Amino acid sequence: MSNPGTSTGPPAVSPRAQLFATIGALLALALASIDVSVVGAAMPRIADDLNGLGLYAWVGVSYAVAAAVVVPIAGKLGDMFGRKPVLLVGLAGFLVASWLCGAAQTMPQLVGFRGLAGLFGGVLMANIFTLLADIYTPERRTQMQGVFFGVAGLSMVIGPPVGGLITDSWSWRWVFYVNVPIGLLAILAVVVGVPFVRSGASWRDIDFGGVLALVAGVVPILIGLTLTGDGRPWTSPEVLALLIGGAIMLVVFFLVETRVAANPIVPFPLFRIPQFAIMAVVAFFSAFAMMGVTFFVPLQYQGVMGVSATHSGTLLIPMTLGLMLMGPIAGKALTAMSRYRILGVIAMLAITGGLLLLSTVGPETGQGVPITAMVLIGVGIGIAFPMATSVVQSAVPMSQVGVGTSQVQFWRMIAGPVALAVLGSILTAQIGVAAQGDVLGGGGVSPAQLADAMSDLFLASAIATAIGLVATFFLKEIPLRDMSAMSKKPAQKAPTNRTAKA
Fold first, then answer.
1. DSSP string, 152-170
2. Does a structural domain hold residue 2?
3. Looking at the structure, do residues 102 and 115 belong to the same domain, yes or no?
4. pTM, to two decimals
5. Which of 179, 203, 227 is the last residue of a domain?
6. Looking at the structure, do residues 299 and 175 belong to the same domain, yes or no?
7. Burial environment of residue 306 by CB neighbours within 10 A (0 to 12, 13 to 18, 19 or more)
8. In terms of domains, do 331 and 442 share one?
9. Do the domain assignments include residue 219?
């Protein structure tokens, strides 16, 4: 059975509609990307006003878990019903959730509303990059993906100061309310510019069993990993129950998708496509490295090198600049080089090398070493992110571009909780749970002790990222321009469970 819904290549788009669609997608990306960093800057004031310090971390956890679990679901719905209605639902829901967050009166309310915002934020992230495949030629699509990833990187830099400025000038509630006018502009641009593709799918075609099994599997695992990152032992009963229960439900999800579902959310035959499988590995480990650096490098700067909190935040800028500047360049290089595997090797080698440099930082190390490391990591991520998306979009059938793209995004998003859990456990094992609160105060851990712990942490991160490096050596290049031919004829039929069993 072929995939219901849109089954042909992208329709012709006028330059005017393309411009409006791009503006809408950029605004949606800015909303979804900057939201987390903006809110993070306001969280101390929020926790104080709502008397909810005990739930401080769960405001972020609820958003991240909800966004990660909905990404593959939203990508499938975009393939079935078209990108335009799914994006509009995501934007409208995100605006409502943002307003509710701003109006929250208690911390539990805010945690719940942030989870709702995460659901619709995941809907946006699953379809924004897929939209580029609908409205641009393959050459321009790859270049625009580099630009879009640059915008996402820029949001990492401007988010905290913007969030702090809004909180100090108005109120923390306006950190959420400000999303509304921006979101309304995005909705208008999507309505005007994004082409509507008539779909033959109906709600009966949705894989509800797969949805339930996926949620029941991913959510407990991500929460369990979050608990380990907060200092709970991996062997604690609550962590084991969550991890084992989630793993069992993921087995159920696999059985539902391969034996029951007529139109599975995740068509597992896609993992038989070498380019798809390898780029999923690259996406995961490049995001793993990015999350580890973003979260733990400020601790290294402050606790090991004695840099102030304000200055330590600015020292993340070299990584972000590398990501922003390299994204568009990588997009052009991917379409200009027939043997673009070397780009993947360079990207993962740069990330791994940067992490190894960070593992050498000690109390007497100058700032040149970590800054060089951050530049290397930013350059590597700036290549790896658009490359993974572009290669997957060219490797999968046109009828499953949304599924393929959302899977890349899914592996990036779950890399965050995994990185924090694994690397946080290494830090805890080295300095102890009780001492973590004193790493900056001088009463618990010396800079030399923390340096040893951070060295092990970044060394482990480099070893993990090296798995992505090895994977790039097995990438077989396919012409990224093949999709231009596919867009002129009906797409291939989607892999089905029946073909998987053959």
1. HHHHHHHHHHHHHHHHHHT
2. no
3. yes
4. 0.75
5. 203
6. no
7. exposed
8. yes
9. yes
132 and 148 in contact (C-beta within 8 Å)? yes
Which structure tokens are listed for 167?
């909180």
What are 457-494's pLDDT values in tens digits? 999 999 999 999 999 999 988 876 443 344 444 444 44
Angle between helices 341-358 and 274-299 (to 10 degrees): 20
Within 10 angstroms of residue 310's Cβ, the number of other Cβ atoms is: 7
311 SS3 class: helix
Cα–Cα distance for residue pair 497/265, rounded to 1 Å? 12
Over the stretch 410-427, which tens digit does the pLDDT of each residue have?
Answer: 888 888 888 877 887 788
Of 262, 281, 308, the residue that ends a domain is 262
One domain, residues 382 and 470: yes
Which domain, by its residues, includes 245? Answer: 207-262
- Give the closest residue to 469 by CA, choosing from 332, 259, 330, 286: 286
> Is the model's pLDDT at 354 over the cut of 90?
yes
Quick one: 244 and 162 in the same domain?
A: no
Q: Please name the amino acid found at residue 361.
A: V
- Side chain identity at residue 315, one-letter code: L
* CA torsion angle 203 204 205 210 (round to 10): 90
Distance, in Å, from the CA atom of 446 to the CA atom of 210, rounded to the nearest integer, reads 50
What separation in angstroms does the CA of 451 have from each of 295, 296, 371, 446, 458?
16, 12, 17, 8, 10
Concatenate the DSSP letters of all residues of 103-127 into one string. T--SHHHHHHHHHHHHHHHHHHHHH
Residues 42 and 189 occupy one common structural domain = yes
What is the count of structural domains for the chain? 3
User: 119, 66 in Cβ contact below 8 A?
Assistant: yes
Q: Which of 101, 144, 143 is nearest to 121 (CA)?
A: 101
C-alpha dihedral, 246 to 247 to 249 to 251, nearest 10°: 170
d(CA 70, CA 125): 10
The per-residue pLDDT for 432 is 62
Classify residue 466 as exposed, middle or buried by CB count within 10 Å of its CB (0-12, 13-18, 19+): middle
Residue with tokens 């965050």: 416
Q: Could you tell me how many helices (H) and strands (E) the chain has, helices first?
A: 18, 0
Q: CATH no. for residue 294?
A: 1.20.1250.20
* DSSP states of 31-75: HHHHHHHHHHHHHHHHHHHTT-GGGHHHHHHHHHHHHHHHHHHHH
Q: Do 80 and 157 sit in the same domain of this protein?
A: yes
Angle between helix 179-193 and helix 15-49 axes, rounded to 10 deg: 160
In-domain check, residue 298: yes
Kindly state whether residues 197 and 248 are assigned to the same domain: no
Give domain status of residue 5, yes or no: no
339's CB contacts (< 8 A; 6+ apart) are 477
Task: Give residue 338's Cα distance to chain centre.
Answer: 28
How far apart (Å, rounded) are the C-alpha atoms in residues 87 and 446?
Answer: 50
Q: How confident is the model at residue 11 (pLDDT cuts 50, 70, 90)?
A: low
Give the tokens for residue 76: 């499938």
